[in-house]
Specification:
Belongs to the SEC15 family. By secondary structure, the chain is mostly helical. Among the domains are: 187 residues, no CATH class; 138 residues, Tetracycline Repressor, domain 2, CATH 1.10.357.30; 94 residues, Methane Monooxygenase Hydroxylase, Chain G, domain 1 (Up-down Bundle), CATH 1.20.58. The chain has 25 helices and 2 strands.
């Protein structure tokens, strides 16, 4: 049993020794641990020592076997060492010589290396600069454009710089700085362009007056040209008038103004009649800021913001323009400046409408025009009501017509302005009536109420030329001779014609038909006759100091003026070309006016006669207790009858013309006589029936009877 264990131990030790021989020394630890874990490590050490001795013997055998070769090798190695030393010396010498000879080459090579490095760096630098230079040039160009206020090109340059050039060199620090500055530059361009827009708005606000004046001048010149063309139709050829163009199509008027193809007319129309060219709106205002600002905001995606701002500011300016000065009604220049500013405002807006795409549209323009039209009409109604000078009202009307024609030329509807002019026409008629009331008063106050004497043919023809009077008997009479009427007859007649002319002037350029003009003139003339002239005549007739002679002359004068009414009818017909027989034609009421005046004069005659009779009767001093009558009529009655005789002699001067006036003289005289006699008889009866007369004597009655008989004779 012990032998068996010994054999196993020996086999194990052999295995361990083989493992030690074949195993890496780094991994021998576990093998040795297995030896010390057993109890036979002494025997293992013996085995190990035996194995070491075997290997030493084998090494010794091998060394002995190869020793001679080793000695020979050492001998050869010693020989080689000597040769090697010689070779080393030669190599060292050669190296020294080579080093000495290669120093210059090394220096040259170093220089060449440095040059090649520099060349490479330069080439790389050139390549980089080639990429960077356009960026720097564009940035410099951008700064130059902004400095010179060319903001829209600057914005375009900025776009190219951001999207084309900077991405190629984005890794450079200066490019990053540029990229960071781009939003600031955009904002700066927006602010500067907005500042330019504000300057533009201020500029057009200041120049609206001048622009409007220019536009109205051109409209006036166009109207004058149209008048010349209408007066010379053969010269005009196939040209259309401005009004025909405006009325040709509602669509055309709505979409484009008649002058829009030429930058809204005012902007480049030249006057063909005047040597001096009238400047256009673009000559007075530089529109480029608004175009640039519009483009800039469009590129920046803020077009809507710009449009809203522009429209808001222009609305504010419109309200300021439409606010009339408080003293506008005092002079025509006040109205002219007001109209010029409004026209200038809308000429600019029309120009903007046709030269920009959508900055303003037709709806916006129409809204502004509706507001302007209502405010303008309200202002004109208010201020024109203060005007009492017909000349100023007429000038205002002409100015309003020019104002309306100017804006109508740009496609704005102006019918309401012409409707308002018809209202002003009523006011104009009132101012004319007030003026002619003063004229008639002056004529009537300065008249001498005596027939006009003429000493020669020239004066006679002059008066006949002023007043339509024909009398064959008067023409046959030798000079000097007298017209039956006084000077106020031809003067009043001529002033009535002047009034008609004044009414006609207002109707010009109002686009009224001949019938409307005729109706307007006739109605105004009727007011002049029935109200103004009638009141003036009534005032003259009712004056306290008017005498019977003056009243008789007034009757004569009104008779002749009544006859002249048919000539006034013809006069109106000639200037309006509307026949009196036309339906709805208003008739003149002059005949009634002069008849009423004549009747008032006749009544005044009767009243004055009665008053004179009363004055004479106040002188009556009857002695109702007288015992004997006088030998003749009372003195007061004799004087009264003498006065009546002289008074009735005046009536022989009343006109005795044919037709309805043939019995005028006798009728007035007869009526006056009857009225006087009746009043006298009544007054004499009152003397007898007075309460103070309580008793009478026969002598007093005989004296009274004597006075009555004197009256009968």
């Amino acid at each position: 049993m012990a032998e068996l264990e010994s054999l196993e131990t020996a086999a194990e030790h052999e295995r361990i020794l083989r493992e030690i021989e074949s195993t890496d020394t780094a991994c021998i630890g576990p093998t040795l641990r297995s030896v010390y874990d057993g109890e036979e490590h002494g025997r293992f050490m013996e085995k190990l020592e035996a194995r070491i001795r075997n290997h030493d013997r084998e090494i010794e055998k091998m060394c002995n076997f190869h020793y001679q070769g080793f000695v020979d090798s050492i001998t050869e190695l010693l020989k080689v060492r000597g040769e090697a030393q010689k070779l080393k010396n030669q190599v060292t010498d050669t190296n020294r010589k080579l080093q000495n000879e290669g120093k210059e080459l090394i220096i040259a090579m170093e220089e060449l290396k440095q040059c090649r490095l520099q060349q490479r760096n330069i080439s790389a630098t050139v390549d980089k600069l080639t990429l960077c230079l356009p960026v720097l040039e564009m940035y410099s160009k951008l700064r130059e454009q902004m400095k010179s206020k060319r903001h829209y090109p600057a914005l375009k340059t900025l776009e190219h710089l951001e999207h084309t050039y900077l991405p190629q060199v984005s890794h450079y620090r200066f490019c990053k700085i540029m990229v960071d500055n781009i939003p600031k530059l955009r904002e700066e361009i927006k602010e500067v362009s907005m500042s330019d827009l504000k300057d533009f708005l201020e500029s057009i606000r200041k120049h609206s007056d001048k622009i409007g004046e220019t536009a109205m001048k051109q409209a006036q010149q166009q109207r004058n040209l149209d008048n010349i063309v209408s007066q010379h139709p053969r010269i005009s050829g196939g040209k259309k008038s401005k009004k025909e163009v405006c009325a040709s199509s509602d669509v055309e008027v709505k979409n484009t103004s008649p002058m829009s193809e030429q930058d809204s007319g005012i902007l480049d129309v030249e006057d063909e009649d005047e040597d001096e060219e009238v400047p256009g709106a673009q000559d007075l205002v530089d529109f480029s800021p608004v175009y640039r600002c519009l483009h800039i905001y469009s590129v920046l995606g803020a077009r809507e913001t710009f449009e809203n701002y522009y429209r808001k500011q222009r609305r504010k300016q419109a309200r300021l323009v439409l606010q009339p000065p408080s003293n506008m009604h005092e002079t025509l220049d006040g109205y002219r400046k007001y109209f010029n500013q409004i026209v200038g405002f809308f000429v600019v807006e029309d120009h903007i409408l046709h030269t920009t795409q959508g900055l303003v549209n037709r709806a916006y323009i129409d809204e502004l025009w509706e507001m302007a039209l209502s405010k303008t009409i309200a202002a004109l109604r208010t201020h024109s009501s203060y005007c009492s000078d017909p000349s100023l009202v007429l000038d205002l009307k002409n100015l309003i017509v020019l104002f309306a024609d100017t804006l109508q030329g740009y496609g704005f509807p102006v019918n309401q302005l012409f409707d308002m002019l018809l209202e002003i026409q009523d006011q104009y008629s009132e101012t004319l009536l007030k003026k002619w009331s003063g004229v008639f008063r002056n004529i009537l106050d300065s008249d001498n109420y005596s027939p006009i004497p003429v000493t020669n043919e020239e004066v006679y023809k002059k008066i006949v030329g002023q007043f339509p009077f024909q009398d064959a008997e008067l023409e046959k009479q030798p000079f000097p001779k007298k017209f039956p009427f006084s000077e106020f007859v031809p003067k009043v007649y001529n002033q009535i014609k002047e009034f008609i002319y004044a009414c006609l002037k207002f109707s010009e350029d109002l686009h009224l038909s001949s019938t409307e003009v005729d109706d307007m003139i006739r109605k105004s003339t009727n007011l002049l006759l029935t109200r103004t002239l009638s009141n003036c005549l009534q005032n003259v007739i009712k004056r306290k100091n008017v005498g019977l002679t003056e009243l008789v002359q007034i009757i004569i004068n009104t008779t002749h003026l009544e006859k002249s009414c048919k000539f006034l009818e013809e006069f109106i017909t000639n200037i309006t070309n509307v026949l009196p027989e036309t339906v709805h034609t208003t008739k003149l009421y002059g005949t009634t006016t002069f008849k009423d005046a004549r009747h008032a004069a006749e009544e005044e005659i009767y009243t004055n006669l009665n008053q004179k009779i009363d004055q004479f009767l106040q002188l009556a001093d009857y002695d109702w207790m007288a015992m004997e009558p006088g030998s003749k009529a009372s003195d007061y009655l004799v004087d009264l009858i003498g006065f009546l005789r002289s008074t009735f002699a005046v009536f022989t001067h009343l006109p005795g013309d044919v037709d309805v006036h043939s019995t005028m003289s006798g009728k007035v005289a007869q009526t006056a006589c009857m009225s006087a006699c009746k009043h006298l008889s009544t007054s004499l009866m009152q003397l007898l029936l007075e309460a103070e007369v309580r008793q009478l004597t026969l002598g007093a009655l005989q004296q009274f009877n004597l006075d009555v008989e004197e009256c009968e004779r």
